[in-house]
Write a structure and sequence with these properties.
With 266 residues, the chain is an alpha+beta fold. The protein has six helices and four strands; from the N terminus they run H-H-H-E-E-E-H-E-H-H.
Length: 266
Amino acid sequence: PKPGNWVGFLFQNSGIGYQVPNVKVNTRHIEQAFFRSAHLRAPGRIENSFANESFMDELAFNAKADPAEFRLRHLKDPRAVAVLRKVMERSGYVARAGVNPAAAQGDVARGRGVTYLRYNNASTYVAAVAEVAVNRRTGEIRVERVCVAHDCGQLINPDGTVNQVEGGVIQTVSRTLMEQVMWDRTKVLSRDWASYPILRHDQVPKVLVDLIDQPGQPSFGAGEPTACSIPAAIANAVFDATGARLRAVPFTPQQVLAALKRPVGV
């Protein structure tokens, strides 16, 4: 990395966790940060994981392969394979290639999206499946259910771990669908719940969590890893439902409607 202002671990999770012949990652720190930043769950890693896991789905689509099975082909670590297979089992995942054929008719299309990551490529293993309903007429996305398989090593407080995972899901669904700080040339404009909306109680998805205990193994964190998996899981589910690829958060209705006008996968 080049010298510059330190703005978080923005390079972490930029390298993929899959077995591929050649990987090269370049990172550059900005010279000046124009806005004062502060702590937020999983800085940098969410963005990098979103890019990596969205691209894995694009590769699977072009290979005419099921997204989960495509990931399994490129995973050798047995703990990685275990979380992905566990979340497939919990969600009732049925392998198929391409866009959901059952979503072709009507205003509301439904789809599922899968993601896998190892936090920092060195600690907690997470796999997630998000199930969404997309209104083609309004562009609104509703996340109906999120299933997570989570391996953070030896479990010390299972109930607390589940709480952390659930909180990471809910917070990041909100960040993915609607949260956005707006500003002009002099100040931040997002100053209340009207200008900075968050997820309401009636918009919270059902969350199912499976913990995989690893007695005798090092214990890792549970607060941030799941958050990294959510934006791509939602984007991949929207693609499965509609063929529209979302490439930037938040996934507002305006962005969804614009994506629906593009050719499939563009």
